[in-house]
Amino acid sequence: MSDTEWFEPEVEEAWWHGLARRFLALGPIPRHIAFIMDGNRRYARKQKCSSFVDGHLKGFAQLMNVLEWCRQFEVKEVTVYALSLENFNRRETEVEDLLKLFERKLIQLLNKLFVFPFFSSGPLSLQN
User: Fold this and answer.
1) Which domains are assigned to the chain?
2) Residue 80: enclosing H or E segment and its boundaries?
3) Are 108 and 65 spatial neighbours (Cβ–Cβ below 8 Å)?
4) What protein family is recorded (predicted)?
5) Residue 38 known to be catalytic
6) How far, in Å, CA of 9 to CA of 107, rounded?
């Protein structure tokens, strides 16, 4: 999966997605939803991906779908728990790769959400 794949135009959704959306909209919509990102490494292992990063990229792509659904339902607040303290007990190279990926995706998300692109005067580091 490429880094920019989730920016591509959306494919046509299944016929039942619109029906499900209208049905769900009949009930109360939560004001706040929280998500815990978990299982990306297990997914990568199970799919025999070349790197655990591939699992995190797939997880991020799915998160973008879920955030779009939240936007369509006008959910006012969304919290995403993307990293846990357990992530920092892994090998140093894995932690560095995970933080770089997180940083890159965060900047891409900010650029997608805001009209004015997010720029950094130097390397943005989430480790400092």
Assistant:
1) 28-113 (3.40.1180.10)
2) strand 77-81
3) no
4) Belongs to the UPP synthase family.
5) yes
6) 19
- In this predicted model, what pLDDT tens digit does every residue of 95-125 receive, in sequence order? 898 889 888 888 887 777 765 555 555 555 5
Torsion angle of alpha carbons 71, 75, 77, 81, nearest 10°?
Answer: -70
Catalytic pick from 3, 38, 54, 97?
38
Q: Say whether pLDDT at 57 is over 60.
A: yes
CA 54, 12, 27, 75 dihedral sign is positive
Question: What secondary structure, in 3-state letters, does 47-75 show?
Answer: CCCCCHHHHHHHHHHHHHHHHHHHHHCCC
State the CB neighbour count (10 A cutoff) for residue 5. 12
**36 phi/psi in degrees, rounded to 5:** -110, 115
